Amino acid sequence: MQVFKFFQTKAGKNTVFFLLLFALIVGASGQITYASMQNDDLLQSRNKSLIQIQKEPKNSIDVIVVGDSLSYSAISPMQLWETYGISSYVCGQYGQKIQETYTMLETAFAHQKPSLVIMETNPMFRVRGRTEEVKSTLEEQANRYFPVFRYHNIWKSYLFGPQYCEQDYKGFIVRSEVQPYAGGDTYMQPTEEVAPINDLILAYMQKIKTLCEENGAQLILVSVPSPYNYNYKRHNAIATYAAQQDLTYVDMNLATEEIGIDWETDCRDNGDHLNLNGAQKVSAYLGNYLHIYGGLKDHRGEDAYKSWEQEAKAYDRMLEQQAK
């Protein structure tokens, strides 16, 4: 009787309302996640990798790449596969915030046991002020536990048909446009100055490092060539952090000549992202580095990876079409 009277009060009615709302959000999250897993073409491009990595055969990926659009514009898993038999997946998102980097890795580790995690470092400098960072943290927590908030736009695809059918190859997105960067390699002029790294970023980097350690994965920091996003101050900041944390750091902005980057042909937007030409050079450099680094198995010829051979053929056909 006391319980019944409570639910007749304003507080009781509010409690019932929030319980029902919670149940609806949980139910909708389950349904929308199921729909996303069934057809990732319904999803906005930035959310695809979060679903696609879960659809890869369990424990089949040895290298996970995380980061923002620099990662999926520069690193081609199919090139790493064809040259070295490395199974890798680029879990990049445009504008990926450090909070999303952590969630992406957490999701990947739930389905995969990579021995290596490559983090493209640009999210370490995506800071929008303390208030916005706190807001981003809270938003990502909500997205993490209640996927309906992350995938809520899926209803548009249901009503109007698939809207996001862009082809990717294990997370790598092909861009062949050419818009040169005119500054050459002058953007990496040496200096002793050090760019600041936000405290919240550092806290999340520790969480990412700990998550990798708990899952038996080696974390490597990588900066791909990008005059728009990198300079020597940022190099100093990442190098100092990596040394303090005993992490490997590979800054390709200091190796553009060795990689063979030609800013007249290898950039698609005036120094921000690499195009296909640049990505092929970066992937060749990274593949050689990983080969020397060792510990990664060559899966070519294994029955469990026959689908990779098929995707490699599709990738090669795409390259042939781009060359015409």
Compose a concise summary of this entry:
By secondary structure, the protein is α/β, with parallel strands linked by helices.
Task: Give a quick set of tags describing it.
single chain, 324 residues, alpha/beta, Rossmann fold, five-stranded parallel β-sheet, 13 helices, 52% helix, 8% strand
CATH architecture call? 3-Layer(aba) Sandwich
Helix and strand string, N-terminal first? HHHEHHEHEHHHEHEHHH
Low-confidence stretches: 25-30
Global geometry: globular
Query: What is the CATH class?
Result: Alpha Beta
Which class best fits the helix and strand makeup? alpha/beta
Largest sheet: 5 strands, parallel
How many structural domains in the coordinates?
A: 1
- CATH topology: the name is Rossmann fold
The percentage of residues in β strands lies in: 5-15%
Determine the CATH superfamily.
Answer: SGNH hydrolase
| Number of separate strands | 5
Order of adjacent strands in the largest pleated sheet? 2-1-3-4-5
Number of helices: 13
Mean pLDDT: 84
N-to-C span: 79 Å
Classify the helix fraction into a percent range.
Answer: 40-55%
- Rg is 22 Å
